[in-house]
Design brief:
Pfam families: PspA_IM30 (PF04012)
Number of helices: 4
Family: Belongs to the PspA/Vipp/IM30 family.
Number of strands: 0
Protein name: Phage shock protein A
Radius of gyration: 58 Å
Shape: rod-shaped
InterPro entries: PspA_VIPP1
Helix content: over 70%
Keywords: Coiled coil
Distance between the termini: 153 Å
Oligomer: single chain
Length: 231
Amino acid sequence: MGIFKRLRDLTVASVNDALDSMEDPVVMLNQYMRDMEVEIGQVEVAVAKQVALEKKFHQQWEEAVALAEKRDRQVKLALTEGEDLLARRALADKKQYELRAQEYEALYLTASEAAQQMREKLAELKEEFYKMRAKKFTLMARAQVAKTQKQVNHAIVGMGNQSAGKGFSRMEEKVLRMEAEANLSGQWRQTSAGLEQSLESLEKNDLDEELAQIKASLQSKKDAEPAKVQE
């Protein structure tokens, strides 16, 4: 028995946990409010019917009292006119109306008390509804804040192990490689430019030396020409 009871308790607990996880507070709060609105509507219909019944019994009571008073006047009038038989019949009717008036009065008082109790119940329901409606907005706002905060926390926690975080790390490594390659390329260009400048400098020196030799040769020839003229 103990094992079966524990299995049953575990099953019930699992079902309750599943139901609890499926319950969206916003959806459930709206549903509760709709349920209360339906209940209030039903009570309002019942109160309206009870009030109508109360008015009906009150009207019948007043009519019976009025007829009893009318028959009382007729009894006195008949006796005054010497119509004893007619007075007797009017008196019998008067008593019937008086009994009927008592019955309607009792029914009216009972219906009136029931209607008053139902009015009070309706007022309590409406007051509770307004309180719950005000509380609903607060709870919905708190639920939304909690939901948003949970999403943010999941996003922060997931940055380290999600594809977006890994992708950023991979792109950072790629940028570092590109920067290193660019630096190496710049260094090669600087080395190549230095070599070119050195070669150009050497070529310039060779030209200057060759020009100097040509000029010296021309000058030597020029110096030798006057000597030939004098001979």
